[in-house]
Amino acid sequence: MKYKVLLIEHDAPSLRVLKRVIGKANLDVISATTLSQAKAIFSNSSPETYLCAVVDYNLPDAPHGEAIDFAISYFMPVVVITSSTEADVRDNILSKAVVDYIPKKNAQIYEYLSRLLSRLEKNKNIGVLVIDSQRKRRNTMTALLKRHNFIIHELPSSDDLVNYLSQHSNIKLMIIDNELKNGPGVDAVAETRKHFHKDTLSIIGSSEFSNGGLSSSRVLGNFLKSGADDYLAKPYCHEEFFVRVIRNIEYLEQIELIRKTANADYLTGLPNRRHFFAQVGEFLKRESEHKTLALMDLDFFKSVNDTYGHDHGDLVLKEFSKLLVKHFNGYCISRFGGEEFCVFMPNTSLKQAMPILDNFRIAVSQKRFVKKGVSVSCTVSIGVTSKFKRKVESMLGFADENLYKAKDRGRDCTVGDE
Fold first, then answer.
1. How many Å apart are CA 143 and CA 75, to the nearest integer?
2. In Å, what is the CA distance from 202 to each residue of 21, 133, 183, 245?
3. From 146's CA, which of 48, 184, 316, 356 has a CA 20 to 30 Å away?
4. Alpha-carbon distance values, 128 to 51, 136, 169 (Å)
């Protein structure tokens, strides 16, 4: 689904630039220059199709932020832009249920807005768990999180916490108060860290200030030593809260990006050879009566590069990889390098695997790889084995022998153990 953004801005130069920024974020822009015009647009619109509203604080018919209240009334996240730097304007904006405000005099306004829009869209798939024994404090925190489109989870205690997290895999951040009715939050963090690594779940500990902050400092140290990633002292300001939340979410995303980059082939996006070995190694440790491995090689691929160029060759590899994913979804697949690919099929006998692999071979032979009006066809040779001697290297050796036989028999065929 492609979301819309309601843009209410009366300054023509700013309107043009903001439209480009929002458009580059792959979002549709619905613009208005006055509050009256925005109301007319929304009289025939569904708020659910809008990701958020970007609203100028000062409009000709709404000089004191009235357009902000209008957008909020439609349950939309609101980002405010303003040319005013007065403290009372800032306070007025932050007193409302807005996502954020951006001063127009900030040179980074457009870059920041682009990142914020991307963040609001990503957050629709991210769960945040709030644990606090006091309902009022939970409600205050969840209300802030809802402005940023997070999926909200809340608990009054840490009872059965590990099981709850296991059942809700979309939870990427947990914010936990220390003064829980069933025991200190730091103890719950320590127990959680036995089951959930910092690369998959971020944890922010929280507590009230007391004794001039001395107690809070002690709790901070206990939280961090128990496995928390960050700490939030209450009371907190709107901006500090979101800086900490977003920083911890983005840390997880960066770790995931690094992991994907390390484990994926740069061209096709398939798991690379190293990651394939790690995946299959885990399967081979388990007891299983059947396991099959197929080694594939595109026939005469060098001639594609030599005749049509490497761009066309890259297209063939990418499209071939998509076919692999389509036909072998749920199995371990990999690009080994060049035009060689591998599929490991756990709990699958050679007899079961052969027709599946042969159907894939036929699908490849019928595929046309088209680039710039030039159509190319390819075939694939496949060597298959179910022989196993403790390590994946032994299976690869047997599959490679059968792949050699397939090439020797004229290519475009599937050869299994005889």
1. 12
2. 31, 20, 21, 9
3. 184
4. 19, 17, 11
Size of the chain, expressed as the number of residues it contains: 418
Domain layout of the chain by residue ranges = 4-117, 126-263, 273-415
Peptide bond into 235 cis (omega under 30): yes
**Selection from 398, 279, 265 nearest residue 324 by Cα:** 265
Closest CA relative to residue 413, chosen from 297, 327, 240:
297
Mean pLDDT of the chain: 91
pLDDT band per the 50, 70, 90 thresholds, residue 67: very high
What count of other Cβ atoms lies within 10 Å of the Cβ of residue 13?
Answer: 8
- 18 within 8 A of 9, measured Cβ to Cβ: yes
Six-digit token string for 142: 């969840």
Domain 4-117, architecture per CATH: 3-Layer(aba) Sandwich (3.40)
pTM of the model: 0.77
Q: Any bridge partners for residue 180, and if so which?
A: 183
Residue 411 CA to residue 236 CA, distance in Å, equals 68
Instruction: Give the CA distances from residue 87 to residues 62, 110, 209, in Å, rounded to whole numbers and listed in that order.
Output: 19, 22, 26
CA gap 109, 82 in Å, rounded = 10
**Cross-strand bridge partners of residue 169:** none
Q: In 10 A of CB 301, how many CB atoms?
A: 19
Predicted pLDDT of residue 288: 67
Beta bridge partners of 173: 128, 202
Residue tagged 């009230």 (tokens): 208
pLDDT band at 211 (very low <50, low <70, confident <90, very high): very low
Query: Encoding tokens for residue 280?
Result: 């299959």
pLDDT tens column, 226-258: 999 999 998 888 889 999 999 999 999 999 999
Domains 126-263 and 273-415 share a fold: no
User: What per-residue confidence (pLDDT) applies to 75?
Assistant: 86
